[in-house]
């Protein structure tokens, strides 16, 4: 891999003179050859990328990925997988955070929201064991309508959307205002992380 960090790394002929001797023509010709090869590689898009990164995958570029976000069906008490194309920055924490924000923003196809209004994502981080820790504002609890089925749909819309779209996420821990809660509305315990539940989805 060829990379340039500045002119100081280029072997100009006058950088290798010693004790006043002039450089030989072979050295000069070699330098010209280096410049020509470097110019060709830059033009071809083969340099200035990170190690092991092919052309077109320079830092800052994102790949598009079709994900499935889980919202409530308008007619039945089940979760519906709603496809959506999103930019994947290649970093699982950033991508997971964006998935949760998309859930909060709601459906683009007429499905019902599962996260109460005014709920904010306070923080998100991913542990080494595959646990995604999602910290919501208190609105998730305070503005929730309650009921066993609705509680399940809220929680598993979050859990399924993360686990089924991000391979690095194996389980999800829910926090409210930075603290653990025993339950959201009194039905499903939140003492431990949750795993995906496909029984609620159609």
Fold and architecture overview:
- The protein is an alpha+beta fold and 202 residues long.
- 27% of the residues lie in helices and 19% in strands.
- It has four helices and five strands; from the N terminus they run αββαββααβ.
- The strands form two sheets. Strands 3-4-5 form a three-stranded mixed β-sheet.
- Strand 3 (121-126) and strand 4 (131-136) form a beta hairpin.
- The chain is globular, with a radius of gyration of 27 Å.
- The model is unreliable at 1-28, 30-35 and 37-60 (pLDDT under 50).
How would you briefly describe this protein structure?
The protein has 202 residues and is α+β, with helices and mostly antiparallel strands. 27% of the residues lie in helices and 19% in strands. The chain is built from four helices and five strands.
Using brief descriptors, characterize the structure shown.
202 residues; 19% strand; disordered N terminus; single chain; 4 helices; 27% helix; alpha+beta; globular; 3-stranded mixed sheet
